[in-house]
Structures are given as structure tokens and as C-alpha cells.
Design brief:
mainly alpha, 3 helices, 94 residues, two-stranded antiparallel sheet
Length: 94
């Protein structure tokens, strides 16, 4: 058995040297990353709108981001099935 054929396959199953999660975890991993990014952006814009480029901006933003993410992640987990159904109602997924 040649090791040259197994290396690309093994490499495609890792990310930064860590084994990838099985596909069944995509329903949690996708909302996790989406909630991190969206809560970061929205809380950053909201914080900037509220306090501007003040000395406390980063501290206030991180605090707002944490609170936003704690709400956003479970909310996404709950509403994502509904969003998928609404999407299927408006988009021909064939």
C-alpha cells in the first residue's frame, strides 16, 4: 500500500492539524460561527454608534459582544429550522 495516496485523504480530514468533526455536528458548528461573526459586527456597530471612538470603545464592545453572543447562539439554534423552511418556501432547492 502506498502512503502517497493516503496523505491527501488524511490531510483533507484535518484542519490546522486537528481532526474535523463528523458531518452531523454541522447543525451546531455553523450557527456557532455565524453567531460569533454577526454578534461581533452588530455589537461593534452599535457600540461605535453609542460611544464613538472613545478610549473605552474596545472594553465596551467586548462586553456588548459577549452579551450579544450569549443571546445569539441559542437563538440561532432554535430558529434555524424555521429559517430553512422559509427558505425552501421561497427558493427552488432542486
Amino acid at each position: 500500500m502506498s502512503t502517497s495516496h493516503s496523505l491527501p485523504n488524511a490531510k483533507s480530514r484535518t484542519f490546522l492539524g486537528t481532526p474535523k468533526l463528523p458531518a452531523k455536528y454541522a447543525t451546531v458548528v455553523m450557527p456557532f460561527f455565524l453567531s460569533v461573526l454577526m454578534s461581533c459586527i452588530v455589537s461593534g456597530i452599535s457600540t461605535f454608534n453609542g460611544v464613538g471612538a472613545s478610549a473605552q470603545f474596545i472594553e465596551l464592545w467586548l462586553s456588548a459582544w459577549l452579551i450579544s453572543w450569549v443571546v445569539a447562539f441559542p437563538t440561532l439554534l432554535m430558529v434555524l429550522p424555521l429559517v430553512r423552511k422559509l427558505t425552501a418556501a421561497f427558493v427552488d432547492l432542486r
